[in-house]
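dumping the sequnces here before i forget
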Amino acid sequence: MQADGDRAREERDMHLQASLDALIGESRAIHSLEKTMDRRLRFLHRELLTDIQALDQLLSRYSPKARLPAVAGWALSPAGLLALVDLIETSGAQTIVECGSGTSTLWIGYALKKLGRGRLIALEHLPEYAQKTRALISAHRLTDFVDVRLAPLSPLQTPRGEFSWYSFDSAELTEPIDVLLVDGPPGTTGPHARYPALPLLVDRLAPGALIVADDVDRRDESEILEYWLEEVPRLRRVESPGLGIEVLELAVA
Ligand SMILES: C[S@@+](CC[C@H](N)C(=O)[O-])C[C@H]1O[C@@H](n2cnc3c(N)ncnc32)[C@H](O)[C@@H]1O
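..and the predicted 3d for all of it:
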């Protein structure tokens, strides 16, 4: 009888200990999750403040009068846009080509208007967004500086095989490109979808041209950068303003 009682107590103690161990494990996991979330929230908070500050600077620099497009996930962030227009203004870029139109088209247009010269050709593969961006540019009276081209994706041979890229004949460019912004086509159109930009346009870049690549914090886009750097020896990284943007320069030969 005594032995049975001892065994039952032992079993209950073991059971209690196992439950306690499980609780301690769970509370440690919760604590570690809280620490990760706290770090992430602090990062997002800093990012938000940086974007608010950048938007404030964009607005006071260009004083847009018409309605602005919504700031959304698919567009360059205000901080990225500020870095981009700074580059355009300080380099005095005249000819800019943009792959993937949207909010960036508007702010580049304002930067050119402030410089009082230059032209942006914004390539857009979807009729709906070509139409939207054109309406935006027209509402902001920037048509003298911006040309939104509907350029549906079509098959293109490159050193790395066939891709779908904007149907755009670079031979029609009368001036060399000073700044090339690569923010399209979207990754949903295929792996390494933005890769053709450089092989196709490298011969049209001015000496010292800047290539601004967005979303390089994603694996696909960072691999594209590596491909470009491997294939074009005159290309070098010059700036990484963070925010998923990397700036490359085509060194003067
Ligand atoms: C990464 S976005 C390009 C965005 C542009 N460079 C910018 O910063 O706003 C790539 C594509 O998203 C599409 N897009 C443009 N405006 C959009 C919108 N308002 N909502 C969803 N997609 C849009 C267009 O087809 C565009 O070529």
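DSSP finds six helices and nine strands in the chain.
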